[in-house]
Task: inverse folding
């Protein structure tokens, strides 16, 4: 199984980079997980969307899904037959939000004419070609799901956006590679009590990977600020107890 980072930026993008988007490939199956601003341009350097088996969206914040609008413009302005449409798997309860967005950018059928839209149920594994994808609810400011992905006998987890939570522990448990957000330099940057938090520090990502026995840890969704995120790597390695990678745009990681 191969993971390719198309974008790693948080909501405020790193200069010249796209927001969240990750290509996962195994045994002839190709799935895009999250599709934030800038991802379609990065995807088109490698594949036409016709070569994807599915797009999977973790949650409905703009930095994880807004390039669905751009993706629609890749297709000609005609109604595709259902079997020609690209499968797009959305979070539970998000259909109305996407409909509101469609009306604002191109009409009620803006997405339906090109995409085969569905929602996962939040817990049940679903198949994308040779991949098995299991959603796990995480702790964020809005409903959000990370994913355990299995293929070719390997296991990858993507945390999406989350604070420390039971869902994060489930995602880290026994995976070969944990792709974890690490947005925060300090807890002061997150929601303050009594409001629930929504992001991780690198130390927390490292602790989750260590406690779950993850074979490798890659940090993403973090500000780089010209320092190559060495601050995040050092903090995560101290809690993980082993080497940590910083997700690099255009880089592929073998799982």
Result:
């Amino acid at each position: 199984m191969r993971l390719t980072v198309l974008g790693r930026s948080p909501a405020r993008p790193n200069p010249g980079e796209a927001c969240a988007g990750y290509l996962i490939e195994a045994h002839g199956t190709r799935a895009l997980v999250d599709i934030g601003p800038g991802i379609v341009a990065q995807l088109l350097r490698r594949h036409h969307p016709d070569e994807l088996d599915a797009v999977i969206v973790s949650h409905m914040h703009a930095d994880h899904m807004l390039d669905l609008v751009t993706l629609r413009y890749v297709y000609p302005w005609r109604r595709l037959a259902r079997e020609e449409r690209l499968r797009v798997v959305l979070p539970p309860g998000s259909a109305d939000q996407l409909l509101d967005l469609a009306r604002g950018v191109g009409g009620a059928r803006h997405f339906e004419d090109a995409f085969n839209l569905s929602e996962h149920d939040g817990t049940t594994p679903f198949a994308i070609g040779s991949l098995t994808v299991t959603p796990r609810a995480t702790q964020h400011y809005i409903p959000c799901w990370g994913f355990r992905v299995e293929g070719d006998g390997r296991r990858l987890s993507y945390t999406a956006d989350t604070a420390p939570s039971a869902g994060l522990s489930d995602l880290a448990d026994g995976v070969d590679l944990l792709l974890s957000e690490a947005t925060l330099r300090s807890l002061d940057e997150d929601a303050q009590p009594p409001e629930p938090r929504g992001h991780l520090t690198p130390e927390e990502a490292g602790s989750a990977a260590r406690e779950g026995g993850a074979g490798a840890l890659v940090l993403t969704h973090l500000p780089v600020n010209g320092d190559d995120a060495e601050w995040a790597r050092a903090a995560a390695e101290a809690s993980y107890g082993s080497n940590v990678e910083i997700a690099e745009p255009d880089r592929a990681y073998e799982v």
